[in-house]
Amino acid sequence: MTDTAASSTTEAFRVVRNPNPATDAERAERLKDLAFGTRFTDHMARVTWTADEGWTDRRVEPYGPLLLDPAASVLHYAQEVFEGLKAYRWADGSVRTFRPERNAERLQRSAWRLALPELSTEDFMDSLHALVALDEAWIPTAPETSLYLRPFLIGTDIFLGLRPSKRVEYLLIASPSGPYFTGGVKPVSIWVERDFHRAGPGGTGAAKCGGNYAAALRPQIGASERGYDQVLFLDARTNAVLEELGGMNVFIVQKDGTVLTPIINGNILEGVTRSSIIQLLEDQNLKVVERDITLAELREGIESGEVAEIFACGTAAVVTPVGRIGAEDFEVTVGSGDAGPVTLAVRERLTDIQYGRAEDTYGWMHRIL
Length: 369
Ligand SMILES: Cc1ncc(COP(=O)(O)O)c(C=O)c1O
What we know:
Number of helices: 8
Strand content: 25-35%
Helix content: 10-25%
Bound molecules: pyridoxal-5'-phosphate
Number of domains: 2
Oligomer: single chain
Largest sheet: 9 strands, mixed
Shape: globular
Radius of gyration: 21 Å
C-alpha cells in the first residue's frame, strides 16, 4: 500500500475528556440506522486565533454548545468557512481519510477569501488525528457508513462594525453518518434554476462558505415544490452555462465515451471528488474535457441521445446518477433514466479505494489509526 503511515502528531492538542460520554449501550444505539449528519461524537477539536497571538490553545474538549456573544461577527456578517471529509474504517481495523491535505488547502483558500486567518495544514491534520483517535469508537462499520468530519472557522469578535474578526475559532466536529441520499444508488432529478444564482463573477462561489449554501436554499425549496430533488445552477453573467449543484459538481458522459465537466472558473467549488474522478476516468482511457457547457447544448445532447449519462459528485453523496432534468420549458430523461455504466463503474472504483477494497495506487488514503 502506498498510504501515508499513521503518525503520532497529536502532542500539540491537549485533551479535556468529556466527563459524561455516551455509554457503550447509548453509542451502539446511536450508531444504528445512520442517516447523514444527525448524530455527533463525544468530543470536538478546537484552536483559537487572535490577531495578537495567532493560533493558540490546541485542544480536544467535550462536544457541546458554544458560548457566543450575541454580537459575535459570524452571527451578523457570516464570516465563516467550512470543510467536509470522511474517515473510513477498513476491514483490517485501520482508519483512513481521503486526500485530507486537499481539504486543508481548500480551507486555507476559503479562509483567505472570507478574510479569515489560515489554519496550517499541520494543525488541520493534527486536529483530525487528535479527534478521531479519541472518538474512534464512534466510527461506524456498516456498509456505506463513515465518520463525517466537519472542520470550520467562525469569526467571534464582539463588535458590530464591519471588519475582519480579530478573534476566530477553528472547530472540528465528527458525525457518524450513513448515505446522504437514502435508498441506494437511485438516480436523482435536477431542476435547472434560471431565476436565482449561487455565485457570480468575483463572488464567493469558489469558497466553501456558509453564505453560498444559504443562497441555495430558496431555489432548493422551489425545486422540491416542483418535484425535483436537487438544483443545477447556471452562471450569473449569461444564465446559459452550467455551474454545479447546491453541494455537488456535475459530469456529463457522452455516447462516444468523452466525459465533460464544467471548468474551474472561480465560481464553482473545486471538488476533491471531482479531481479524483477526472483522474480515475482518464486512467480508464476515457477522455475528460473541462470546459464551458451550455444548457442548450446539454438539452440537445440528451434529446438526441448524444448525452448518455449525467452524474453529480461530492464527499457526502459520493457519485449520484441524474435521471431527469427539467426547467420551465422542458423536461428530459437522461439515457434510460437509470444509473449508467460509466457512473456505476467510477462510483465503485472510487468507493473501493476509499473503503480499502482495492489497492490505493494513487496514495490518496491517509492513515489516521
Ligand atoms: C457547492 C459544492 N460543490 C461541490 C462539492 C464537492 O466537493 P468535494 O468533492 O470536495 O466534497 C461540494 C461539497 O463539498 C459543494 O458543497
